[in-house]
Amino acid sequence: MQSDDYKKLGFRAGLEIHQQLDTRKLFCNCPGILRTDEPEFVIHRKLHAVAGESGVIDEAAKYEAAIGRDFFYQGYSTTCLVELDEEPPHELNPDALKIALQLSELFNCQALPIVQVMRKTVIDGSNTSGFQRTVLIAINGFLETSKGKVGIQSICLEEDAARIVEKTEKSSIYRLDRLGIPLIEIATDPDLKDAEHVKETALKLGEILRSCKVKRGIGTIRQDVNVSIKGGARIEIKGFQEPSMMIKIVDNEILRQKELVEQGKKVNSEVRNALPDGRTEFMRPMPGADRMYPETDIPLLKISRDMLNEAKKNLPKLKSEIESELKDKGLEPEMMKLLLSEGLLEEFKALINLHNHPNLVVKTLVLWPKEIAARNNL
C-alpha cells in the first residue's frame, strides 16, 4: 500500500508499548522472577464486575463477567499476600518510579507534580483482585521519527498481569510469579502515517526503553496498535511480539475495515488479537473510562524537584551514543551487535578494564559460552 492510499483512507494509528522493568515488584518486595518448577499452592477465585468512578460498569468488564469462569492461581514462596489480594499494597517501588521519570525525560514529557494510583477493572482472571493498579506519571512528550514528530500522550507505571497457564471454556489457570512486575506503558498520539511508520516508531520506542533498566527476552515487551480509517472505528490490536509482523497486520486491518465500510456495515470499536498469519480475531469490546476508580490503600504521591533532578542526573546513554563509544574502543561491528543484543554491556565494561582486548572480551562473554553449551547439549 502506497502512502497516498493511507491518506485517502483517512488512516489513523497510535501505539501502546508495555515494557517490564528489571526491578522487584511494584507494590511489594517480591522478586520479579518467573518460575518453571511445580507450584507450592493453588487458590480458587470467582471475580465480579464493579462500577468505576463514573458509577457505570465498563462494557469489557460486563463481557468478561458474563462468561462466569472459575480462576485458579498457582503460587510460590517468591509471591506474597499482596499478589493474593489478602494484604494492602505496599508503597510504590522507588526504583520503578525513578526509571519512569528517566523515560519521561528521554521522551521529552512533562512529569506530573502529584500522582495518584488508580484501579482499572480487569476481570478476565489475570489479576486476583479484579483490577490492575496503574499510575499516570507524565504527559505531552514527543519522539522524533523519519516522518516527523510522534506525540507521546502518556507514560504510566502499572502492574503486569498474572501469567496464563491453561484456559478452557469454564476455567483458567494463572501463575502469580508475573503478577505485580512493574510495567512501563507508553501511549503515543494517533500520529502514525502508515504501516511502515508504525513499525519504525515501535522500534524507536523499544530502543529508548532498552537504554534503561528493563527486562529482556520474549514476553518482556508487548505492543498494541490502535487503528482506524474514515467511516470505520478505533480497533485495538493486541498480541504483537515482533515488529516485523506489524506492517502485514495493520494493512490487513485496514482492508477489513474498508470492506465493511464499502458494504455499508458498521465497524464495531473492539479489541482484536493478532494471529500468526497476519489476520486478527475478536477478543472483547473496547474498554473505556468506566473501568477506572481511585486506589484507596495508597496515598497521593508528590513528585519532588529532587526526584526529577536525580532522574535527569542519571539519564542512561542511548544506543547511538553507546555504539560510538564502543567503536572508539576498537570493537568490530559484528561483535558490537552481539554484545548489545545480549545485554551484556556492564559485564563488558568491567572486563575491558582488566583486559584491553575488546573483541576477545565479547567472544568470551557471548560466543564461547554458546559454543560450549552447543557442544555439550546444554
Question: What is the number of helices?
Answer: 10
In the residues, how many domains can be counted?
Answer: 2
Helical content class: 25-40%
Strand content: 25-35%
Q: Regions with pLDDT < 50 over 5+ consecutive residues? A: none
Assign an overall shape: globular
Distance N to C terminus: 45 Å
Average pLDDT: 92
* H/E series: HEEHEHEEEEEEEEHEEHEEEEHHHHH
Structural class: alpha+beta
Tell me the major beta sheet: 11 strands, mixed
Got a strand count? 17
How would you describe the overall organization of this protein?
Helices cover 30% and strands 27% of the residues. The protein has two domains: 3-309, no CATH class; 317-375, no CATH class. Strands 1, 4, 6, 7, 8, 11, 12, 13, 14, 15 and 16 form an eleven-stranded mixed β-sheet that branches. Strands 2-3-10-9 form a four-stranded mixed β-sheet, with no helix packed on it. Strands 5-17 form a two-stranded antiparallel sheet. The chain is an alpha+beta fold. A hairpin with a 2-residue loop joins strand 7 and strand 8. The model has no long low-confidence stretch (mean pLDDT 92). It has ten helices and 17 strands.
